[in-house]
Specification:
This protein is an alpha+beta fold and 213 residues long. The chain is 19% helix and 40% strand.
Length: 213
């Protein structure tokens, strides 16, 4: 399997369960390896036959900053599922999240690393009036899913919680936006082409406990 790497992606976000970690951003360093077939891109020279690593970096950064995670484990799992939703050609994702400040004075960093293959989440497609919905991952903190809007169909989304959503396939491909609680979004497919949306919906976390490095 061919690989695309994004190494040492640096960002600052809310991550952790301790009170001081919920009040200020801290450094996070991300390594991502994407497994996919690059033979077509190697012959065509077209980015559409591959995955744009700049887009992947933007997507991972946007998701981690949007969600304000408590556990590195949940962050890695959701980010992996989101990449599968946003890039149908990816077959495998290996992700490592490092918190350099987690064990300050005792260790250089604390990290979580995981590898997932497409299909590892046991997702099934559910038919809807606009096309279909596939839920890739559900945790107590969030839902990662993608929606297929069939040609000439429309979907209107109004969630009770904040969400991050982007168009995978359609007229505005590549756009990623944070939508606040209760705000309505309307998407319409053209008469001749379908529309694919990937979404992460944040759920309330006030009652959660747990352990984070």
């Amino acid at each position: 399997m061919d690989l695309i790497h994004v190494k040492g992606l640096e960002l600052r976000c809310i991550v952790g369960i301790r009170s001081y970690e919920r009040q200020r951003e801290q450094a996070l360093i991300v390594d991502v390896a994407l497994g996919l077939d690059l033979s077509t891109a190697g012959r065509s020279g077209q980015i559409g036959d591959s995955v744009d690593y700049a887009t992947v970096a933007d997507e991972v950064t946007a998701l981690l900053r949007f969600r304000e995670y408590r556990l590195l484990e949940v962050a890695a799992e959701e980010a992996t599922a989101f990449l599968f939703a946003a890039h149908p050609g990816i077959r495998q994702v290996r992700m490592r999240l490092d918190k350099p400040e987690a064990l300050a004075g005792r260790a250089r960093s604390a990290a979580v690393e995981m590898t997932r293959s497409r299909g590892a989440f046991g997702a099934t497609e559910e038919q809807t009036e606009f096309g279909a919905r596939t839920e890739l991952l559900r945790s107590p903190e969030g839902i990662v899913e993608y929606l297929r809007v069939d040609p000439n169909k429309t979907v209107t989304l109004r969630d009770p919680h904040n969400r991050l959503e982007g168009i995978v396939e359609g007229p505005s491909k590549g756009r990623l936006q944070t939508v606040r609680s209760g705000v309505e979004s309307r998407y319409e497919a053209t008469p001749t082409a379908r529309l694919l949306l990937c979404r992460c919906v944040a759920l309330p976390t006030s009652a959660l406990g747990g352990h984070s490095p």
